[in-house]
Amino acid sequence: MKLMKRFGKQVAIGLCAIGLLLTVLSFFFFRQPISADIWLDGGGEPVRVLVNSPLAANWLLKAGIRLYPNDSLRYRGISIPYDLNLPARSGQLLIYKPAVPVLIRTAEEEVRFYSGAQTLGEALWENNIFLKISDDLSLSMDTPLDQAITVTLLRSQPILILYDDNEINASVSSLTVGGALAEAGISLQFLDYSIPSAEQPIPTDRTIQIIRVQEEVLTEETIIPFNIERVSDPEMNVGDEQILRTGVNGVRSSTIKIRYEDGEEVARTVLAEWVSKSPVSQRTAYGGNVVVQTFDSSEGSVDYWLAKEVYISSYLDTGSKTASGIWPYYGVIAVAPEWYSILKGTSIYVPGYGVGTVLDVCPGCVGKPWIDVFIPTDQYVPWSRTETVYFLLPAPDNFSGELP
């Protein structure tokens, strides 16, 4: 301590002198030019300059390079600011890369800037443009920035995919339904389709429905009923029948394509149809020989040529004449038009009604053995039943032995 008190003033003066000397030496040294190589990024040969300033910007100026905002300088592989003081030794190396224009187009806007970055990815990072994995960039992140560049950036958006009773939420950047499904890892197989269709844009509600489609082809068989051929045999009595040939059903085969959507059948298409087994018609003979028979009714013996079970109903005055042109009266019988053409004028004994004559047509009697008996309005009682009736002599001349 005594030594410092005694010589402190001299030590301080000495330190100041040393600092001043170093400053002068540094100034003197940089007054002595040093060599530096300036590389233009991507160029073939460097530009060698002699500099006497530590500022990086001055080195470039010496090389005839004018700096602009966002131009890039790298020293020993590291990006440096323009005003960095560089070490004063010969053989230094600077790499200069001029900034190039970059245009980023998104669905909502266009972003323009200049960048001296080495790659597109670095340029985006420098400008605080960060990507998600599901975003889509039209160029690779390692695309070199050696010229003006335009790139499309599609930001991912959520979508809802419905299929097979499942719901999938995904983020996609595609603008079309097909692209969105591909990003979500869902493919349309064979006949599958989507709503909207794959080439359509994603709908505003961002919901896509997938319809799973399956088709199968099978063979079906249906029965072809055999026909019945009835022929009159004048040797057989009316009312008798004999099967001459037994009928056999045929088979119709069809190849059918069935379409299913989400497991539900929606359509059937017949691809081919053929008769795999022809039907054989049944042939039946019926009697055409009229034989007079007798029936003992409560009103006495009745001679008849045909007895037939029929459905019987009553009808009353309609205000119109009968098909035979007369006004109806008790005893008028109406039958189907097919029967009327054969039985017009024929008398029939109807138990519980008496004897009537076929003089009218009953359109509602078509299709079954049915007769309609007339009862005047003042006596009318509605009734109906199934009963055997007896067709009285004489038999119609055009009767073949069977009523149609």
Determine and state the CATH class of the largest domain: Mainly Beta
Number of helices: 5
- The largest sheet has its strands arranged as 21-25-22-24-23-26
> CATH H level of the largest domain: which superfamily?
RlpA-like domain
* Percent range of helical residues: 10-25%
Instruction: For the record, give the distance between the C-alpha atoms at the N and C termini, rounded to a whole number.
Output: 151 Å
Q: What's the alpha carbon Rg, rounded to whole Å?
A: 56 Å
Beta-strand proportion: 35-45%
CATH topology of the largest domain: Barwin-like endoglucanases
Inertia-based shape: rod-shaped
Structural domain count: 5
**Average residue pLDDT:** 87
Written overview of the protein:
The chain has 404 residues and is mainly β. The protein folds into 5 domains: 34-97, Ubiquitin-like (UB roll), CATH 3.10.20.90; 100-154, Ubiquitin-like (UB roll) (Roll), CATH 3.10.20.90; 157-211, Ubiquitin-like (UB roll), CATH 3.10.20; 216-286, Resuscitation-promoting factor rpfb (Resuscitation-promoting factor rpfb fold), CATH 2.20.230; 291-392, Barwin-like endoglucanases (Beta Barrel), CATH 2.40.40. It contains 5 helices and 26 strands. It has helices spanning 2-30, 56-62, 120-126, 177-183, 337-343, and strands spanning 34-40, 47-51, 72-75, 78-79, 92-97, 100-105, 110-115, 136-137, 149-154, 157-163, 166-172, 193-195, 207-211, 213-224, 228-237, 241-245, 250-261, 264-277, 282-289, 293-297, 300-315, 332-335, 347-350, 354-361, 370-374, 384-392.
